Amino acid sequence: MSLFRGAMRVHLDGHKDLTEHKDVISINPSKVAIPLFAGAQMNPEILVQVGDEVKVGTKLAQFNGNFIVPIYSSVSGTVEAIEDRMHQSLKKIKHVVIASDLQYEEANSPTINYETATKEELVDFMMNSGLIGCGGAGFPTYVKYKFAKDVDKLIINAVECEPYITADIKLIEAEFDTILTGIKAMHKMSEAKEVLIAIKESHPETIKLVEEAIKDEKDIKVVKVPDVYPMGWERTLVYQVTKKRYDRLPSEVGVIVDNSTTCYWFAKAMINGEPIMNRMLTVSGDGVKEPCNVIAPIGSSVKEVVAACGGYTSEDMIVCMGGPMMGGTITTDLVSVDRQNNAITCIEKKPVEEIACLRCGSCSDNCPSGLQPVRIAQANKLRDMDRLGKLEVLKCVECGMCTYVCPSKIAVTENVRRAKRAYNLAQAKKK
Ligand code: SF4
Ligand code: SF4
Description:
The protein is of the alpha/beta class. The protein has twelve helices and 17 strands. The longest helix has 24 residues. The site of one iron/sulfur cluster has 14 residues, from helix 8.
């Protein structure tokens, strides 16, 4: 552990008012390009060919590596191409391009009744449904439940602490009954003693709605958390709720964390046999003309989604998949919306005048992982990989906090990100 353990939280200007009271809109693109992406796993088994007719829920591909990750069609129509395209991970990967017939005809996918199914049947069903974490991480959800043991708390993360993003809260307001079905099934699978739905105290209306809906559920409660960043980050949230820290996974302290939108899509799979076929995305920032929440089929291009919000305010733009703190910048808006996305943030480029480091320590004091970004950057400059290891560079979650607090306007996060990459590369070469 680092010598310094940061304050871990800062109140940020949320800018949520740009979208939180606006109606949600939907788009129906005539073509989607569905990324065959499963984190670090490569080489999907592709199960369709050009010319095949597909429906919503037709299995397009499956990853069979460390984890099983099937990928399904989000539209009905005809497979037009299977080709390499740029993905938001900034790698070229295979995409299945489908010309949509705009009918959204559904394949006859299996459903399951969580009340009568066993835990093992539910885990298998979750794995085959292709459910991944919808909060941004995109990790296959079934893995948490397959190996669940001695779980004390299941925490449903509805914190949404990043600036601009309102999609989770909008979905809770519109679909909490469905989300609750997912929560109950996950409760059964985890065998947790209690379920805590974490919502920021700055959302009294949402808290009221959820508390009313769960008033007869004796093991499910709302836990109100402070409106600070990065409260929604798993480590911060687990500490806030349990006052316990863990090394690698929340299961070490008897906790499973899942995002509220993940619960929604699990319920949709159980009730209707629907895979994650679309995502509600908060499209916001000073770089978009009419910020709002948009429901877009998986495989829609970012360009089409932003166009539905009136387009960009200028040509010089930073576009992030996700929020401005943790989201990854994309280099072209032709990339596809993927299953783990919850937002597209467009920020106008402004000249930033960087000055020398003041040694103020603010980046260390505010790092939720307790890191020392300045020392990490120095070690990377010297290519001192042993030192980077000692400074625990891999613990950086790229939350953006160090850049946000830096009075010298230094791109501190980017420096740490580079150091992480260099360290990973050096470790891979050793093998
Ligand atoms: S980006 Fe990394 S180093 Fe910077 S505050 Fe976040 S976790 Fe710490
Ligand atoms: S916050 Fe900025 S100025 Fe302060 S120590 Fe970190 S890098 Fe230097």
